[in-house]
Amino acid sequence: MAYTDRAGESEIRAAFAQATSEPVSGGWEDRWKEFHRPVRAGGIWIGPPWIAPPAGELAVVVDPGRAFGTGAHPTTRACIDLLAGLERGSLLDAGCGSGVVAVAAARLGFAPVRAVDYDGVAVEVTAETARANGVELEVARADVLRDEIPDADVVVANIELTVVDALLDRSPARVAVTSGYLAAERPRALGWIHVQHIELDGWAADVFSRAALS
Length: 214
Description:
3-stranded mixed β-sheet, globular
C-alpha cells in the first residue's frame, strides 16, 4: 500500500500496469499511527509519544521511526520480561537499535546502563529516546564483533543468532540475556550455563550465567 497524489499514481501505473487505486479520506498522513499501540513488558508500559502512559506506571516512550525497536516485537518484550527478573547491576545493551531495551533497563533499576550499536543512526536515536524519557545512558557506536566490549554485570543482545554467538564468546559479563532468534533456535553459548528460556509468538529469549544463579 502507498499513499500518493495523481502524479505519483500515474508513475506507479506506468511501472505496474495491474496497480489499482482508490481515494482516501482526510487524515491519511497520520493513519500509520494506528498501527503503533502500547504494549507492556516487565511491568513497564511501552508506547508511542502520541499516547499518554497511564498515571503512576513505569513507562518508556519510544518514537517509531529511524531505528529498529518500538517495544512491540516479541523479542524486545521477552528481553525486558527477563531483565525484570534479574538482580540489578550495570548493564550493556549490545545492538541497541532505538534504545527501548536500554531505557527499560534503566527504568527497572539497572545502573549504569551503556548502549552500543554499529549503526550510527541507531546511536543517535537511542540518545534521543533516553533524553525523551529523562534517562541517563552512555551511548556509543561500536562493533560488538571487533571492538572491545565494555564490562557489565549483564549484557543484553536482541540481535541475530550468529552475532549473539560471537558476542557471548567475547563478552566479559556475568549474565547474558539474548534474543532475536526463533523458538527452535538456541545460542551456542560456550562457557555459559543456561538459566532460563521463554518463547513468545514463535520467538525465543534466554538467560545465561557464568555461574548458576541462586
